[in-house]
Amino acid sequence: MDIVDTDTRSQMMAGISYKDTRPELLVRRALHKRGFRFKLHDKELAGKPDLVFPKYQCVIFVQGCFWHVHDCHLFKWPKTREQFWHEKLGKNQLRDARNLSELKRSGWRTALVWECALRGISPEKKTHVIDQLNAWIINGGEFLSIEGNDLANADDMDTDSYDVDIFG
Ligand SMILES: [Zn+2]
User: Fold this and answer.
1) From the CA of 46, how far away is ligand 1's center (Å)?
2) Closest CA to 160 of 129, 114, 122, 113
3) Quick count: other Cβ atoms within 10 Å of Cβ 79?
4) Of 99, 130, 121, residue with least CA distance to 28
5) Which domains, and CATH codes, for the chain?
6) How remote is the CA of residue 95 from the centroid of ligand 1, in Å?
């Protein structure tokens, strides 16, 4: 039953956010390699966006599907301490919504990259996600959300994938 590796589990149990976990690092490294320069976790901005591109007036959040209650295969409501989790994750959702509207009000464009767009996904599809971000940073609209629902069942899962059934 316990198919999540120990690090992942202790991280989740400790309530640590997804800061610096692999999907975010992947995005950072890939965009840096393409020549983009950005600030990390800027406390001056609502929600401390993971990547901030002052030159392009845009920010990127790499969102963990569990902590941000994404409607995808990586999210399941925990079956223990249900009330605790509903309150905790409900607060996260409210905070996310507030942060997004505050960023918009202050003139920032925002992109969300969901964990499921990057976890368990082939290198080609990861490159496609980075391509989308690259184009959006330079010349995109006010808001972009990249998620993996249509990619999740790809049969070319790479080896760092795990089937998240953390609380199942
Ligand atoms: Zn997701």
Assistant:
1) 22
2) 122
3) 9
4) 130
5) 6-146 (3.40.960.10)
6) 18
47 CA distance to ligand 1 middle (Å): 19
CA angle, 35 as apex, 33 and 41 as ends, to 5°?
A: 80
* Stated pTM of the model: 0.77
Ion ligand 1 — residues with CB < 5 Å:
65, 70, 72, 74, 114, 116
Report pLDDT digits (tens) over 132-154.
999 999 999 999 999 996 544 44
CA atoms of 130 and 49, how far apart (whole Å): 17
107 to each of 11, 65, 104, 143, how far by Cα in Å? 34, 26, 5, 11
* 103 and 110 Cβ atoms separated by less than 8 Å: yes
